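are you around this afternoon, could really use another pair of eyes. what follows is a protein written twice so to speak, once as letters and once as structure tokens for the fold. i want to understand how the tokens follow from the sequence so walk me through it. anything you notice is useful, everything is just below.
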Amino acid sequence: MEATKITIQPNNEQILVRTLPEVTEGNLVDVQQDLSGGLRLQFDHVGQVNLGAVTAQNQGRILVVLIDGFVIYAPTIDEQITNGELDIPHPINPQVVQLLKEVAAKNVKKAAKS
């Protein structure tokens, strides 16, 4: 397994993450923002299966969510995620949210053509 060292803020903890991600923006099919600015990311079937597998096999480890190479969320995995949804409980930059929504819409449109 190839790994890359990254730093998790705010404590500057360094961890190794797999170089090839389990779930990518290509699996994103919906983005919902709540009133506090947090996000719910919904993934397609492949993303759901991969997210379920990685969270089942890595409980107690850190799940790293990167956007453009920056860590936006890094919780400890405490249970398997089986519904294909990942909640990010803190506000995300509005431009990033808009970009994620555009990517999700493009993925849905592409899937509909297949």
